[in-house]
Amino acid sequence: MNPEQLRDNIYQLLASQKLAVLSTSDMGRPYASLVAFCFSTDLRIMYFATPRATRKYANLMNQPQVAFLVDSRANQAEDFHRAAAVTVLGRCKEIDEDGKQKAAVPYLERHPYLKEFIDAPTTAYFAVRIEKYIYVSHFQEVFEYKVTDATDTAA
């Protein structure tokens, strides 16, 4: 698969899903959480929110490297041949309260039902600078897309 088609496949998969599994580290042990997300059109940044009084928030404060899993499965036998998944690897940073409202605009466009959640002073909003994507299709075809290789710089 050429890089442009791989990028398009990753983009389409991310656009088709509203939830991802976020993996953090809890003192060396993996910890997974389901989160709503959005992403930049250039595939360089993903955004998500979490209450500050959560294990994932504490984990993120101690170890900012994260992984997301986004997939297209339908829990059917056909998934072994049709489903695709992408692992997204990156480093996150909490956006301060002054920048949160502006940065959350694309998130709220995608998840308007989460406005009250985003507006809560107890909610932290994160930007994840993406390093690379690992895309798997047809159960065993694996492709890697490094963001630094990307030529698309649109925001």
Q: Can you walk me through this structure?
A:
This protein has 155 residues and is of the alpha+beta class. The protein is 28% helix and 43% strand. It has six helices and seven strands; from the N terminus they run H-E-E-E-H-E-H-E-H-H-H-E-E. Mean pLDDT is 90; it is low at 150-155.
Summarize the structure.
By secondary structure, the chain is of the alpha+beta class.
Considering the chains and any ligands shown, give keywords for the structure:
155 residues, alpha+beta, Pnp Oxidase, Chain A, six-stranded antiparallel barrel, disordered C terminus
- First-to-last CA distance: 25 Å
| Total count of helical runs of at least 4 residues | 6
Order of strands, main sheet, comes to 1-2-3-6-5-4
The proportion of residues forming helix, as a percent range, comes to: 25-40%
Number of beta strands? 7
Shape, principal axes of CA atoms: globular
By CATH, the architecture is named Roll
Mean pLDDT: 90
- Any idea what the radius of gyration is? 16 Å
Q: Helix and strand succession?
A: HEEEHEHEHHHEE
List the helices and strands and how they pair.
Layout: H1 3-16, E1 19-26, E2 29-39, E3 45-51, H2 55-62, E4 65-71, H3 79-82, E5 84-95, H4 97-103, H5 105-110, H6 115-119, E6 123-137, E7 141-146
Antiparallel strand pairs: 1-2, 1-4, 2-3, 3-6, 4-5, 5-6, 6-7
